[in-house]
Write the structure tokens for this entry.
Amino acid sequence: MEPPLPNSVDLGPLQLAWLGDAVWELHQRLLHCHQATRTASAHRAVVAAVRAEAQAEALQRLEPLLMEQERDLVRRGRNRAGRGPRRSEAAIYGQATGFETMLGWLFLRNPRRLAELLDHLAKTDPPNPSPRTP
């Protein structure tokens, strides 16, 4: 017998953010699967889209649509984010963590709302930034 999926109430903001990061990356991969491009190009585009800066920008585009509970999830994730990697700004990293926390919670608790917000982002997607090269 398989163990039941955890209830999102049992998960803290950082666990939800970890899950939300996977949800966001899968969403980006699915979007790029439908484009006629080489795998390496699609990979670079996905990497650019899952960077903290891109996630913070996506959160800004969703901000006017968010319900109070979603704003609270973003705040909780942002407050638990810490400084993040040395090369990123703490504020941007916090926004990205808040965004991921909300996505993780919606994935578990309200998939319909998650799809609605992701559809909005796909429809309002700015032109693809050129991926960073190391």
Notes: The chain has six helices and no strands. Helices lie at 13-33, 39-49, 52-62, 68-80, 90-109, 111-123. Residues 129-134 have pLDDT under 50 and may be disordered. Residues 13-33 form the longest helix (21 residues).
